[in-house]
Amino acid sequence: MRLSMLNRPNKKNNVLVFYDTWCPICTKSMKTLARLDCFRRLQYESTRNKAVLNEYSLNYEKLEKRMHTIRLKDGKIEEGIDSIFRIVKQIPLLWIAVPFLQLSIWIGVGSKIYDWLASKRKILPVGGCEGDFCRLPDRS
């Protein structure tokens, strides 16, 4: 599935998901969500699209640290573990995770775990890779 196919707005979209298209894990996760989203409740947007960020008045520095979602019916912005929680509630196949995510949020570990995982992600700029490998900067 091509990334351009992820972003198909329609009347069913409930949540706009901002994700980092330079992060292979983020991109793979969004492709998986798009496959699981049988009711097409999610719409996807790159955090690298400055025009869209300006349109929704989102802070780029915050987006680099945490995934953001916007609930389209009322414009509510959520980030981090709250975004994950919002996404999981939109996809019936993932509803089994709802109680665990809710509990992690209530006891305060959900954000800590999310932030730790997010800090470990790798960023690969577009055009920085060729085929199955990426060039590393020369350390000399």
What does this structure look like?
By secondary structure, the chain is of the alpha+beta class. The protein is built from six helices and six strands. It has helices at 24-36, 50-55, 60-65, 81-90, 98-107, 110-119; strands spanning 15-19, 42-46, 68-71, 76-79, 129-130, 133-134. The strands form two sheets. It has a four-stranded mixed sheet with strand order 2-1-3-4, covered by helices on one side. Strands 5-6 form a two-stranded antiparallel ribbon. β1, α1 (24-36) and β2 (42-46) form a beta-alpha-beta unit. α4 (81-90) packs antiparallel against α5 (98-107). The longest helix is centred in the first third of the chain and has 13 residues, at 24-36. The protein starts with 14 loop residues before the first strand and ends in a 6-residue tail after the last strand. 23% of the residues are buried.
Summarize it.
Helix content is 39%, strand content 16%. It has helices at 24-36, 50-55, 60-65, 81-90, 98-107, 110-119; strands spanning 15-19, 42-46, 68-71, 76-79, 129-130, 133-134.
Question: Mind sketching the topology for me?
Answer:
Layout (H helix, E strand, L loop, with lengths): L14 E5 L4 H13 L5 E5 L3 H6 L4 H6 L2 E4 L4 E4 L1 H10 L7 H10 L2 H10 L9 E2 L2 E2 L6
